[in-house]
Amino acid sequence: MASHGALAQEAQRVRGAIESLNGNTLVVKTREGTEQTVKLKPDWKVRGIRKASVEDIKPGDFVGVASLPKADGGDGALEVLIFPAAMKGTGEGSRPWDLKPNSTMTNATVAKAVKAVDGHTITLTYQGKEKTISIADDTPIVTIAPAGKKDL
User: What is the Cα–Cα distance from 62 to 84, expressed in whole angstroms?
Assistant: First the structure.
């Protein structure tokens, strides 16, 4: 998977394709088709992602999981990001997310990872709470990889 992201102000999230980069100004064509200008902080950094697998998820890892409620209860993962150890605690918690309607993003520590006959399940802990999420075989799973401004 060859996707890259630039960190802007933490409160700003833009989904789309990079149209141009000029100094600290990024222009993004959003998924809705409009252009949005993003002013980056002077010390901005680029991070890439690389493909990972469900077997890479271990108890104690810090992950970000976008998920949707399932009809039979619990949540089903839409995508999983395995954070590097140095990023443990980043954005910890569970909040509404814009990937799909009714989706949430949960950044939390993996308390338990289980492989069962019908797939994988992880139990996440964050801020004194616990959430169990199932991961289907076709769920995208990635981790952060080195990247530079030239990769944009």
Answer: 8
Per-residue tokens: 62: 């810090």
Q: In what order do the strands lie in the sheet with 35-39?
A: 16-22, 25-30, 35-39
Q: How far apart are CA 35 and CA 9, in angstroms?
A: 18
Torsion of CA 112, 116, 120, 122, to 10 degrees: -20
Q: What is the pLDDT of residues 62-79, one digit of tens each?
A: 999 999 999 888 899 999
CB 107 within 8 A of CB 63: yes
56 three-class SS: helix
Spatial neighbors of 25 by CB under 8 A, at least 6 apart, are 37, 38, 39, 40
CA 132 vs. chain centroid, Å, equals 17
To the nearest whole percent, how much of the chain has pLDDT over 70? 91
Give CA separation, 38 vs 25, 44, 140, 148, in Å: 6, 12, 27, 18
Three-state secondary structure call for residue 107? strand
Q: Tens digit of pLDDT for each residue in 134-147?
A: 999 999 999 999 89
